[in-house]
Specification:
Blueprint (H helix, E strand, L loop, with lengths): L5 E4 L1 H5 L8 H12 L3 E4 L10 H4 L6 E4 L4 E4 L4 E4 L4 H11 L4 E7 L2 E4 L5 H6 L4 H10 L1 E2 L3 H7 L5 E6 L2 H12 L4 E4 L5 E6 L4 H12 L6 E5 L5 H6 L2 E4 L5 H6 L2 E2 L7 H9 L1
Parallel strand pairs: 1-2, 1-12, 7-8, 12-13, 13-14
Antiparallel strand pairs: 3-4, 4-5, 6-7, 6-9, 9-11, 10-11
Length: about 270
């Protein structure tokens, strides 16, 4: 039997190639890994609803770690395992946000919600990049009563915030990093994603390993960007893609192929 029992993989820039496709080579490798008793587990900053069908509806993936580790979804049981911000904690976060000029979305049980403002003028003001604009309009549901909706939620996976002023973004990050119950990461230039201190991709990987009775040392994590750092540091074997950010390569145990060279096939051949 292989030593490694879980491979937690980021999606964009890792599992997916530069055309945002899951290659046939990767699909074949995932099928072989599953036959060998190795769970390949997508681990993403996206919500479950935002996952493409090739991941969300694919029987090759029983478990999906989403919202940067705040929640784990079990396809076969149709069940979530999560570490959420409760109503009081999330309202404390919303109170802090009132001090800044921001635009944000809130994630609850695998779906994202936002207010109705989505004109180019508004999104440019909050420094959304073009890919993020398309993502927001396509995947994130607008609500007219958004603020009151947010205030009522009792189990929030994550709040994703875009800032108009870079100096406010930096100050806010420092406040969240010093908070005893909150943590954060970033997936875009003007963005900060806030979640419970016990969430994060790395802790999500540990929770899944514990759930399955697998030694945490018998896990692999692979990724390319800043929100993969905790995953790579937590895994028994942390791998950075050849196209990864330099700070990701610096903490990884090894650097592997780029995302057009079929990461799962590479891991199967070199580590399993």
């Amino acid at each position: 039997m292989p030593k490694y029992k879980i491979i937690a993989t980021d999606l964009d820039g890792t599992l997916f190639n530069s055309r945002a496709d899951l290659s046939e080579e990767n699909i074949a490798a995932i099928r072989t890994l599953k036959e060998k008793g190795v769970q390949v587990v997508p681990s993403s900053g996206r919500t479950l609803h935002e996952m493409p069908p090739v991941v969300r509806d694919n029987p090759l993936f029983r478990y999906i770690i989403h919202s940067d580790g705040a929640s784990i979804y079990d396809r076969e049981e149709d069940k979530f395992y999560g570490v959420y911000m409760d109503q009081a904690l999330h309202n404390e976060l919303l109170d802090i946000l009132e001090e800044y000029e921001v635009h944000y979305a809130t994630r609850v049980y695998g779906k994202s919600y936002r207010d109705t403002r989505s004109s180019d003028e508004v999104l440019d003001h909050f420094r959304y990049t073009e890919p993020y604009k398309r993502f927001l309009r396509y995947f994130i549901e607008p609500l007219h009563d958004f603020e009151s909706f947010c205030r009522r939620q009792t189990a929030v996976e994550m709040t994703c915030i875009n800032f108009h002023f870079p100096e406010e973004q930096a100050e806010f990050r420092r406040r969240i990093e010093a908070h005893p119950l909150l943590d954060c990461t970033s997936s875009d230039v003007a963005n900060i994603e806030v979640y419970h201190k016990d969430a994060g991709k790395g802790k999500g990987l540990w929770r899944l390993a514990d759930l399955l009775g697998i030694d945490r040392a018998d896990t692999i994590a692979v990724g390319d960007s800043h929100n993969d750092l905790s995953n790579i540091e937590a895994a028994g074997l942390g791998l950075a893609m050849g196209n990864a950010w330099e700070d990701v390569k610096a903490v990884a145990d090894a650097v592997i192929c780029n995302n057009d060279e079929h990461a799962m096939k590479y891991i199967l051949e070199h580590y399993i």
